[in-house]
């Protein structure tokens, strides 16, 4: 077995003789052909392609961060649109109560107003209608509604978080607002 001192001595001798630096472990092995020895030495010292390897290793992380950030901003925009939509629906229904004994017309008005807000945020009204669920579980008990009667609008929107190199998962946004009939 060769000691580390012997390896270092052989390395120093090889460096002084040829002027080229060869890894100490390669200096122990005697290659019959000097070209093969210089080829192995050049492969050891060659750094070409290291930037490409680093790029290929870091590119997926960079893509994940960029697209993940974009999707988070989209999620925040959708949440804000749902918040604003339910606010607009409650405000409209408070000032313009519908004379109906069922929640259907109240729900239709709320859906129209909330979909307008979501369509502005997502850019796709059909998708907003498909993924949105509206409920108006509590409506005024009196027909026509009396001043001060309360009602509630609930909206649920399911959105798919889609980032390259990551698992897809659904996020459900819920918004609930209570309103009161206002008479002027």
Q: Can you walk me through this structure?
A:
- Strands 1-2-3 form a three-stranded antiparallel beta sheet.
- The chain folds into two domains: 4-46, no CATH class; 69-180.
- The longest helix is centred in the middle third of the chain and has 46 residues, at 50-95.
- It has six helices and three strands.
- Strand 2 (150-161) and strand 3 form a beta hairpin.
- With 184 residues, the chain is an alpha+beta fold.
- The protein has helices spanning 4-18, 24-28, 34-45, 50-95, 104-122, 125-131; strands at residues 132-135, 150-161, 169-180.
- The model has no long low-confidence stretch (mean pLDDT 82).
- The chain is rod-shaped and about 105 Å long.
Please tally the β strands and state the result. Answer: 3
The biggest beta sheet reads: 3 strands, antiparallel
**Alpha-carbon distance between the termini?**
101 Å
Percent helix range: 55-70%
Please report the number of helical segments.
6
- CA-atom Rg in angstroms: 35 Å
User: Which strand order does the major sheet show?
Assistant: 1-2-3
Shape: rod-shaped
Question: Into how many domains do the coordinates divide?
Answer: 2
Q: H/E order of the elements?
A: HHHHHHEEE
Query: Which regions are unreliable across 5 or more consecutive residues at pLDDT < 50?
Result: none
């Amino acid at each position: 077995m060769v000691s580390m001192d012997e390896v270092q001595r052989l390395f120093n001798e090889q460096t002084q003789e040829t002027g080229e630096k060869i890894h100490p472990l390669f200096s122990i092995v005697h290659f019959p052909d000097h070209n093969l020895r210089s080829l192995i030495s050049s492969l050891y010292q060659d750094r070409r392609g290291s930037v490409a390897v680093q790029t290929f290793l870091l590119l997926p992380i960079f893509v994940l961060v960029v697209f993940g950030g974009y999707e988070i901003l989209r999620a925040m925009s959708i949440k804000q649109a749902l918040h604003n939509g339910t606010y607009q629906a409650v405000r409209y229904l408070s000032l313009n109560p519908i004379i109906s004994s069922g929640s259907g017309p109240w729900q239709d008005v709320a859906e129209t107003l909330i979909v307008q807000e979501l369509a502005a945020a997502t850019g796709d009204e059909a998708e907003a209608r498909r993924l949105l669920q509206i409920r108006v579980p509590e409506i005024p008990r009196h027909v026509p509604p009396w001043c001060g009667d309360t009602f509630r609008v609930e909206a649920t929107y399911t959105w798919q978080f889609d980032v390259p190199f990551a698992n897809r998962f659904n996020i459900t946004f819920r918004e609930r607002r209570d309103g009161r009939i206002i008479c002027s």
